[in-house]
Amino acid sequence: MSIHDDDEPVSFLLIDFVPVITDQIDKLKTMFRNPKIPFSYRFDNCRQIGNLEIEEMTRYDFKLSYRYDCLVGITTNSVYIIDRKMKILLNSFALEGSLIHTLDDDHDEIYNISPSESNADTILLNKYHLGEFIKGKNLPEPVYSSEAGYSNPFGMVVFNGKNTRFLIVLDDFASHLKITDCETGCLITNTILTISPDACALELISRSEIMIGCSGLTSIYEIDENLFGLGKEALKLIVSMHTESSSSDFYSIVHDELNRKIMVSDAEDNTIIVLRKDDLQLVQKQKCNDNISGMCLDKQTGELFVCYEKGLVVYQ
User: Rounded to an integer, what is the distance from CA 281 to the centroid of its chain?
Assistant: First the structure.
């Protein structure tokens, strides 16, 4: 006997939750496999890493790649790749005239700004595949080289928009930020990102918040992507705080999510300044013995990597 007395067909709607569930499971696996350890802020148990031949009086920066388990450092004339766990030099090659660089680890990309080889007055934005950049013995061919209108950039970050990824660039003490399309390398026009003048460092500290370090002032702004290209102000000031010194030369900003703190390297005073994220109040100042520049924090191991004139140092 049939379950149904009529002859009407029965329809079943099958909903596939597998992709969503799989993605969530992968994220959980990653979280448990790589538990986050907070930085101690004791600034002890430090040691120098690798045998780096840093050019004299050079300021430089290292960026972390969790994808490739390494640190990528670029000085004025060289690239250094260091094993994140073993703390040993894996690779190095020449790169003349580099100004700044940043990674997009999620998309396997690295961006570098440097003068053109044929014309030193022309500043180029160069995009590379991160894997090729790390593993090669020489500088690989770029995905593109673009004249994006920079003159003397101090810092840049990748901003993941709703549908487009952008590079936000701090250029030559300007009172506004410049923004570039990551895919094309083209400057985005009619976009106003006004900041305090004399800015010298920047860092994204959340999905839509950016911190700017100026001489004697630190500020956090909210980015409104909906106003890009409309000729309207796309930054809203959230909080700002004057520093003790008006002659600060901020070089690098690190956001410590676990401790809700922000670390700033002051290259003028050779000091690491620790601020509370919520209100930018001063929490701690750590005096350094050598010329300090870039910093990066391993959010899984709680290790802070600091760039000094004589080499890279790690604090636990």
Answer: 23
User: Which residue is it, tokens 């690098």?
Assistant: 252
CA 189 to the chain's CA centroid: 23
* Pair 127, 108: CB distance under 8 Å: no
Q: 294 vs 18, 27, 214, 216, CA distance in Å?
A: 42, 30, 16, 19
10-residue block means of pLDDT along the chain (316 residues)?
52 49 55 76 85 75 97 92 93 91 97 91 95 94 93 93 95 90 95 91 95 90 96 96 75 96 93 95 90 95 92 91
**DSSP-based three-state secondary structure for 307:** strand
Domain range 37-315, CATH class: mainly beta
Q: How far apart are CA 170 and CA 297, in angstroms?
A: 21
Helix (H) or strand (E) holding 83: strand 78-83
What are the domain boundaries of the chain?
Answer: 37-315
- C-alpha 47/C-alpha 107 separation (Å) is 31
pTM of the model: 0.86
Residues 6+ apart with CB under 8 A from 36: 258, 299, 300, 302
- pLDDT on residue 247: 59
Tokens encoding 141: 């061919």
